[in-house]
Every structure is written in C-alpha cells, then in structure tokens.
Amino acid sequence: MTALPPDLRVDADPAWSQPVVGVIGGLGPAATALFLKLVVDLTPAVRDQDHLDLVVLDHSTTADRTAYILDPDHATDPGPGLARDATRLAALGAAFVSIPCNTAHHFVDEITAASGLPVVDVVEETARAAAGAAGGAGVAVLATDGTRAAGVYQRALERLGADVVLPSDEQQKLVMSVIYDGVKAGGPVDVEGLLGVVEQLRADGAGVVVMGCTELSVVYDDQGWRERADIVDSVETLARATVLRAGRTPRR
C-alpha cells in the first residue's frame, strides 16, 4: 500500500482532535448508523467542535462473517479485507479502531496484527458489562450463528466466571430471522417473538440477556428497550467504550 503523504495524515493535522477514532462500518449499515448516533449522544459536548473526530470506512460489501465461520470451504474469508481496512485507517492516522459488528471480532487478532492498531473489543466490553449486571446469575447471549459457533462470547464470559445461557435451536432460528430477514433485508421484524425469547431466557435463569449482534441492537433501540436493566446492548456498550478510549467521560 502506498504511504499517505505526511501532510494528509489526520494525526499530523492540528485541525483534527486527538486521538482520532477509526471505524470499520457497514457490517451492517443500520448498525453502523446507530453506533455513530450513540457516540454522538454519549459524548459530552455543547458544540460541534467538542465531539470526537472519526474516520469511518462504511464497507458494506465486506464478505459475510457468519457464512465464512460456518462454511470456510465455500465462503469468502472476510478477515483479509477487515485487516486491509484497519491498515487503511492506520495509514490515515487513526489511533484505534472500533468495529460495530460482534461476529467480526472472530478476526480481531488478524486485524490487529496487520494494522498495528488496537481494537476496542465489543465482545470483551459487553461480556464485562453483562457479567457485572447479572449479579452472579447466568448471562444469555443472542447473536448470529457465526458468533455462537466461534465461541467468542462463551470464552469471554467464562473467563469472567459467568455461566452462559444460549437459546434453543428454535429460538436461535427466530433470532437469525430477525437479524437477516428483518434488519439486514429491511423486512418485518418479529419483535414479539424476539421479546418472547428474552423473557424465556430470563425464566430459564439468565440474569441479563445480551444483544450480541449489532442488528439486534437496532431493534433494541427502535423498541425503546434502553431502560431495561435486564438487557445489555453491545452497540451501546461499544459506543461508551469508544468515547472512554478517546479520553472523554460518557454522558451516561
């Protein structure tokens, strides 16, 4: 990759506040839009110039993460593309990267190795928030089949000593339909069915339920579930961690 002229790097430009946040977005687009909105909402600011400076690559054509995790022999590997995008952000002068996609964090080691940039890990941050909120009870995780198969949340929660509660096969089918047929495809969302899964997992012993896919975060936001103490949202958690990493104190 051709090096960017030094005078075009944002970390060398006094007109840009530091540190500059790099964002790999488009995974999917609605979730990225929500993440950016929450970063704005959580940043303590009274004028435009008080907000964070970000470089956003809204790379919606990135290969599907779940498809590759489930069938690597017949699907395109998104890892190299994610790594190249992080390297582009490094070349532009970003100090760290936030990726509003839980499944993409299966590839986080590849991303950091290629770019040299630290990644704000949405899985680790959300697992920590959920384990704390659960108060010793189990933590249920709603996520894509890819995130579930990769085991990223299971490992993160087990390291924290939290018991993991996963949806049944039938519940998981409904979750995947909400993600792919609903939010990603712009189709109808079975909100009542999703809420039923949440309530059943709570009845099965989960102290909190994690919205561990950023498309589920879109539903969570649309439905006004932000005041529910028994749901931990990954996009909101990532936005808060991003604001903190940039040296600011989030508004809430």
Automatic annotation (TrEMBL):
Keyword presence, Isomerase: yes
Source organism, top-level taxon: Bacteria
Entry keywords, A to Z: Isomerase
EC class (word): isomerase
Enzyme Commission number, as recorded: 5.1.1.13
Family the entry assigns: Belongs to the aspartate/glutamate racemases family.
PANTHER family noted in UniProt: ASPARTATE-GLUTAMATE RACEMASE FAMILY, GLUTAMATE RACEMASE
Record-given protein name: Aspartate racemase
Organism name: Allobranchiibius huperziae
Record lineage: Bacteria, Bacillati, Actinomycetota, Actinomycetes, Micrococcales
